[in-house]
Amino acid sequence: MENKLAEVLSNLAATLGTTVDKLWGVLLRQAPISGTIDLTICIILIVASVCLFCFVWYKTARRNACRLDWNGDYALFAWTFAIVFGLFTFWVVLTNAESIVSAFVNPEYWALQKLLLK
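RESULT FIELD:
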């Protein structure tokens, strides 16, 4: 495993015209930045999902709340969209959770994963 990592780092450093030490340092500094971006995206999606659920709940719970009739097909479409969006949010958060935690807690592991998996 160590030889594979050294080979990948050497090839990447040669391609970029830099040294392995410089490349590894850049990757370690990039870890918290990527973690912050991923965490921000997850938070935005969670807030949007909660707001969407609250909006649909508000519109479907009140009768004649607006000009549209939210009790028939509109309610079904709105709830379907809200549930699909909620499931998408859950999937995004679930798939990014390990990367977010490792970016902050163990940036070396994050950098290693980025090198070996890409």
